């Protein structure tokens, strides 16, 4: 009896996963609208399909041949040693101090792998090997790595940093408490900018049926199915005289819409998507502001510190850019295409970029002009360096280590007087890049997204609450002017705020209000389920988690939460069905293995429970719940010597836990 009581107190029921983060056509072409599409491009139609880069090759072979060599064309490819820019021969294992793990990438023939291991007292106590399935990044700055498990995509913990020719832990894996190991999900938002248009599984967080190999033509030109069909049918448009509306040509768009094509991916930050859009829904040529806004904080040193993909924001601070967009300017508005040919590798366009600068900045000694480059060595012709090397110097990124990027803030060297030593953490304001004057609810969503993805500073949630209340006051003052969709978005944002603030009571109060109309999206249902799970109201938690799974049937986290709630509600057979489906979908979902093991334990299937706990620990040896559950089984079945080191590890990590101390005392008594 004494042993049974001890064992039951030692079992930890469930894993609680951390919260992961997880316009019109060109105005200059209106007179050339074809009757078949009116003012819209064919690619905007929901019937237009993505056909892939190979469909473009036969008619556009020179552009195709250049593009596949470009940085964008090499953005995503199958993992193979011959496709990698990294050094696979001289590898020093990488150490993650936070979780005491080593990571060692290695090649076996053309196949690429990474080995995770731990060494304790000279012995390897943990070993996990994952094969790399994809390489992300052209190698101009980095090669990062992806593995896929039954269509679920995750980032590998190691990255090759090309400029320093070194291996390192992947970005965001290096800070204390933030090593995702093999659990960082690759969402549709990640894929939307790092690759061509994928086939994303709706209702999942990170599952894809098919992914292209690299950013391709349709990322900037839009879906090409109608264009291909027309050309194959002999419908040819003289593009020297009119616009071919079967495909978007960014160079034929207005300057605003042209900039949108680049800003969609090169204006990074906390993205807020509008009107029910997903990251994959926007089509080139449409106003980006109607699809998303991007938020990023301004700090005292925002002129000198910046993230990697902030090129349009940096460019917009330049006098060259500002002057060209003035109404009385005689020059064409500066856009990304002013300097960049997106079809070609960057290193092959430097002379053209230099020539673009010299269109306005002569540099000749006999030219007397405020626009002239006055650097003496340029004037006398002894300095032949690229203009950008001085006026757009390379600088480190604040979000990715070991890289240097061209700063697109064009300026005269030495004129910047900002004190670079100022505190980077002091927040001034949250800038909105696409729409500088967003709706208060959208601004609140910007703060919430920034909190989730980039920081855990509570002040972000306080600011979100202020803007949500402003939006709510406007609705309450004149409810007839607000459409149903905006009401749903506002409600969803309130529930998201309360969830991130751990104000579960506010969510429960709202959900129980008479006439409360909750949005029908999976994340809102999940968050309401969390609010009831927090007070062990298992029946209501099951209801809301089930609704989340119905809305997101391939979302692993939602399935896991439903299985836990069903187990706690005593509905073990239903829980078994959910966990079996979860583990079948992804056999490496660690929390699901532990939670299914506990469900097996309650059903009395000790062998199945032990198998699941061991599988979970093989993947993640520091799972507290799986260790405690396995130790319980081992002690119950008399395998005390095997149980002792597990109990000792638990006490080392959680010295104040009385159950683990009691288990150790029990084992000590048996040794006496």
Quick summary:
The chain has 672 residues and is α+β, with helices and mostly antiparallel strands. Strands 1, 6, 7, 8, 9 and 10 form a six-stranded antiparallel beta sheet that branches. The protein has a four-stranded antiparallel beta sheet with strand order 2-3-4-5, with no helix packed on it. The protein has a three-stranded antiparallel beta sheet with strand order 13-14-17, with helices on one face.
Percent of residues in β-strands: 5-15%
How many H/I helices? 25
> Which percent bin holds the helix content?
25-40%
Rg result: 28 Å
**Average pLDDT, to the nearest integer?**
88
Largest sheet: 6 strands, antiparallel
* Estimated structural class: alpha+beta
| 3D shape | globular
| Number of E-type strands | 17
**Termini distance?**
20 Å
Low-confidence stretches: 1-38, 364-370, 417-424
């Amino acid at each position: 009896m004494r042993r049974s009581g001890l064992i039951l107190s030692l079992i930890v029921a469930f894993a609680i996963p951390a919260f992961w983060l997880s316009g019109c056509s060109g105005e200059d072409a209106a007179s050339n609208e074809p009757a078949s599409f009116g003012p819209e491009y064919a690619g905007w139609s929901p019937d237009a399909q993505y056909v892939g880069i190979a469909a473009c090759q036969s008619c556009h072979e020179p552009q195709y041949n250049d593009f596949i060599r470009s940085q964008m064309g090499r953005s995503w490819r199958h993992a193979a040693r011959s496709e990698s820019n990294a050094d696979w021969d001289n590898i020093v294992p990488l150490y993650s101090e936070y979780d005491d793990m080593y990571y060692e990438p290695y090649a076996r023939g053309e196949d690429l792998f990474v080995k995770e291991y731990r060494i304790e007292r000279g012995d390897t106590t943990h070993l996990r090997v994952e094969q790399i399935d994809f390489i992300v990044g052209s190698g101009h700055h980095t090669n990062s790595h992806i593995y896929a498990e039954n269509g679920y995509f995750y980032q590998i913990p190691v990255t090759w940093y090309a400029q320093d020719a070194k291996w390192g832990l992947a970005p965001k894996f290096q800070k204390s408490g933030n090593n995702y190991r093999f659990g960082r999900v690759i969402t549709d938002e990640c894929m939307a900018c790092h690759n061509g248009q994928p086939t994303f599984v709706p209702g999942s967080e990170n599952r894809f049926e098919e992914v292209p190999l690299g950013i391709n033509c349709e990322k900037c030109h839009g879906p090409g199915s109608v264009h291909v069909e027309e050309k194959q049918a002999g419908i040819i448009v003289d593009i020297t005289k009119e616009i071919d509306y079967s495909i978007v040509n960014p160079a034929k768009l207005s300057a605003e819409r042209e900039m949108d094509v680049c800003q969609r991916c090169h204006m990074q930050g906390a993205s807020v998507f509008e009107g029910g859009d997903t990251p994959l829904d926007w089509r080139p040529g449409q106003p980006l502001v109607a699809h998303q806004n991007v938020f990023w904080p301004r700090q005292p040193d925002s002129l000198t510190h910046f993230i990697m993909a902030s090129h349009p924001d940096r460019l917009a601070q330049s006098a060259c850019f500002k002057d060209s967009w003035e109404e009385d300017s005689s020059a064409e508005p500066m856009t990304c295409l002013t300097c960049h040919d997106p079809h070609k590798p960057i290193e092959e366009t430097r002379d053209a970029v230099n020539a673009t600068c010299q269109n306005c900045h002569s540099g000749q000694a006999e030219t007397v002009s405020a626009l002239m480059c006055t650097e003496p060595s340029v004037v006398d012709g002894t300095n032949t360096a690229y203009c950008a090397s001085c006026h757009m110097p390379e600088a480190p990124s604040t979000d990715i280590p070991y890289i240097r990027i061209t700063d697109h803030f064009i300026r005269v060297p030495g004129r910047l007087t900002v004190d670079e030593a100022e505190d980077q953490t002091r927040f001034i304001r949250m800038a909105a890049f696409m729409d500088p004057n967003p709706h208060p609810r959208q601004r609140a969503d910007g703060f919430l997204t920034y909190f989730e993805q980039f920081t855990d500073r509570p002040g972000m949630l306080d600011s979100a609450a202020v803007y949500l209340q402003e939006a709510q006051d406007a609705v309450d003052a004149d409810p007839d002017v607000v459409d149903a969709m905006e009401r749903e978005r506002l409600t969803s944002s309130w529930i998201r705020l309360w969830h991130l603030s751990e104000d579960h009571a506010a969510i429960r109060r709202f959900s129980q209000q008479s006439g409360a109309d909750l949005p029908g999206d999976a994340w809102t249902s999940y968050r309401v389920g969390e609010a009831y799970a927090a007070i062990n109201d298992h029946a209501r938690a099951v209801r809301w988690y089930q609704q989340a799974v119905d809305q997101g049937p391939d979302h692993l986290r939602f399935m896991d939460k439903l299985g836990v709630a069903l187990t706690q509600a005593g509905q073990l057979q239903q829980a078994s069905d959910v966990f079996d489906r979860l583990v079948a979908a992804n056999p490496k979902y660690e929390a699901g293995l532990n939670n299914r093991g506990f469900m097996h334990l309650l059903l009395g299937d000790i062998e199945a429970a032990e198998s699941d706990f061991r599988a979970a620990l093989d993947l993640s040896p520091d799972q507290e719940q799986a260790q405690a559950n396995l130790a319980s089984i081992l002690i119950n079945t008399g395998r005390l010597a095997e149980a002792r080191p597990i109990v000792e590890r638990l006490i080392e990590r959680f010295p104040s836990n009385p159950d683990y101390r009691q288990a150790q005392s029990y084992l000590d008594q048996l040794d006496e």
